[in-house]
């Protein structure tokens, strides 16, 4: 079982300690660093290149959105999980656009948080239900200047729809009777052709283009 290196960025020491106390009990999760501000977090990420970062949004200095943007610039492979207090925070959409893969509330259960970290390591998004609903409402209408969907092959369209339904690469491979490697190749092609950054943006794109029914989410 591969170790998942996790870094914490939160200006509240008590919050960081609570996260550390639980996550250090997980066999495959290792806390490799902590930061109390965005600036410190970006510098630490540059040095540690963590697999996953748990990111607070409201911090002194640069906020979690800008921290996410800068962190992804210095460590593109790091997955950022936003962990905040409010589902209706105005920073929800900017955080996701900045590169956050998941958006969760701090009242999440420890087990659900561990699940989200493991999912992030697999490059899979986990969203709080209220946030998922807001995303669907915000992004369900088609918008101009997006890459046209007709660039995709029929098989890439199949993969896109299944990604938008929240299926993992393994589940998609089983559903389409292809290998996980082939699934990853199709997903990479989708991201490249549509100029998208991750699975979350693929799902948003599919909703905007009405390629999947809203009740499939």
Automatic annotation (TrEMBL):
Chain segments annotated as coiled-coil in the UniProt record: none
Statement: the UniProt record of this protein carries the keyword Transport: no
GO biological process entries: phosphorelay signal transduction system; regulation of DNA-templated transcription
Residues recorded as bearing 4-aspartylphosphate in the entry: 56
Keyword Phosphoprotein applies: yes
Response regulatory domain residues: 5-121
Protein's name in the database: DNA-binding response regulator
All residue ranges annotated as the HTH luxR-type domain in the record: 145-210
CDD domains in UniProt: LuxR_C_like, REC_NarL-like
Top-level taxon of origin: Bacteria
PANTHER family on file: TRANSCRIPTIONAL REGULATORY PROTEIN YDFI, TWO-COMPONENT RESPONSE REGULATOR
Record keywords, A-Z: DNA-binding, Phosphoprotein
Molecular functions per Gene Ontology: DNA binding
Species, as recorded: Candidatus Chloroploca asiatica
């Amino acid at each position: 079982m591969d170790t998942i290196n996790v870094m914490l960025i939160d200006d509240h020491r008590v919050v960081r300690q609570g996260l550390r106390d639980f996550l250090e009990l997980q066999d495959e999760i290792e806390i490799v660093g902590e930061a109390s501000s965005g600036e410190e977090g970006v510098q630490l990420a540059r040095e540690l290149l963590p697999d996953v970062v748990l990111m607070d949004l409201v911090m002194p200095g640069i906020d979690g959105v800008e921290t996410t943007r800068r962190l992804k610039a210095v460590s593109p492979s790091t997955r950022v999980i936003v962990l905040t207090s409010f589902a209706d925070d105005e920073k929800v959409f900017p955080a996701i656009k900045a590169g956050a893969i998941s958006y969760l509330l701090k009242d999440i259960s420890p087990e659900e948080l561990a699940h989200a970290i493991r999912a992030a390591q697999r490059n899979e998004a986990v969203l709080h239900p209220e946030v998922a609903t807001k995303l669907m409402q915000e992004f369900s209408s088609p918008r101009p200047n997006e890459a046209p969907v007709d660039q995709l092959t029929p098989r890439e369209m199949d993969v896109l729809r299944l990604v938008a339904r929240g299926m993992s690469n393994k589940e998609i491979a089983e559903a389409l009777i292809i290998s996980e490697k082939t699934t990853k190749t199709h997903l990479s092609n989708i991201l490249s052709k549509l100029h998208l950054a991750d699975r979350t943006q693929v799902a948003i794109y599919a909703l905007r283009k009405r390629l999947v029914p809203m009740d499939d989410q």
